């Protein structure tokens, strides 16, 4: 593998370029008009304008990207996360053109991309799934009937959904009636498929996921867990490993279930098995993400491995760098913070020119940034501008280090969620580590009341 | 004539009101989709809607007039 095209943008393109440079692999970047000035475009060995700013006219143009890859003679394509990363037809076309898709088998993407199908696959493999409907729900009447059997509150979800979009909690029949059509409409608009299903809502739930890795020789390992329960709008904001307040026996069962899940679909390359964990530490399979995750640096920090390097090695058909599970150890504690260009209170995006970007005291802190001072955050893409990864011996030390770091950050020109982190890191609910997915909304509500 | 302008660039995800409808202050008239989020557009003043200047699926820029009031 000598030349890799990165079918992505921003921080993840930059992240992939970094590992390619380390391994002496040439990189080809693509960019849309709005991204011409971003650092990743300059850092790649070559970069090509792929189209206008909207993703449909640029980063999602499968045939244009393939044509460029062929013209440039690349050996492999890395899809990053989001965009085309879980598009099985893109993966198939790459392989048909004689290039390597750096990711799982296209068939695995199909199986796991359909949430109803993946629930059935996991059930068959003995992995616990959230109680819910086995098939898609056609009508509201049917939904009401099924919801009665499952019991409220329930989650109404799009089978094709992802990234926190296409799901809503319904506390009663009235809420279900109100949301049924809109979830279907959204699913159709965002994912092109309006099949929905119901799951029991797990109260007091934590979102804990497991990083898994497989090669083409039948080896599968896990690289421990990440707790991603600090969320806004069903999207992650803070991720950490190890998960606080999670007893070892439960963790070991969870890690084993994730490996079983991966083996059930002969998983190759990097993947993540997401679980919801209830108050009694019972866990249920939620979904499997068939790509590298945004929060993979948390795992890199505690295990010491370069996951992009692992992806490239496995994609070449070589053995996993570590085959024996016992040789993968987790050391210390790592926390990742996603820096979003958004209003820290309403969470609405805040595009604009980054007039000032000074991270302050960055010693011993990893920052994966897609933007630099002077760049413009445009309204065409996800509002995440950087990830900050803090590592220490203990969780307490990591939190103190994070507090110190965030007090030294200056960003001007756009609003960011840095002020939120400055406050939230001191919240007891976060510090004691017992938090659930409701922690951030609840804490914000509490802050509002205290001001009153 | 009063107007509601787009506060940011995005795609029109949904239009809640109709031409000829009376709206109140703070009422959501449209939902934009931008940066993977749905952003409600609210009426800053009350009044009767004369014209809706966008259709579902349209891309609008910051400052574009979305709705015109009487």
UniProtKB/TrEMBL annotation, chain A:
Residues 119-316 form the ATP-grasp domain. GO terms for molecular function: ATP binding; biotin carboxylase activity; metal ion binding. It comes from the Bacteria. It is an enzyme of class 6 (ligase). It holds the Pfam family Biotin_carb_N. This is biotin carboxylase. Keywords: ATP-binding, Biotin, Ligase, Nucleotide-binding. Its EC number is 6.3.4.14. Residues 1-445 form the Biotin carboxylation domain. Gene3D superfamilies: ATP-grasp fold, B domain. The keyword Lipid metabolism does not apply.
TrEMBL record, chain B:
Signal peptide: none annotated. Pfam families: Biotin_lipoyl. Coiled coil: none annotated. The keyword Protein biosynthesis does not apply. It comes from the Bacteria. PROSITE patterns: BIOTINYL_LIPOYL (PS50968). PANTHER family: OXALOACETATE DECARBOXYLASE ALPHA CHAIN. NCBIfam families: PRK05889.1, PRK08225.1. This is Acetyl-CoA carboxylase biotin carboxyl carrier protein subunit.
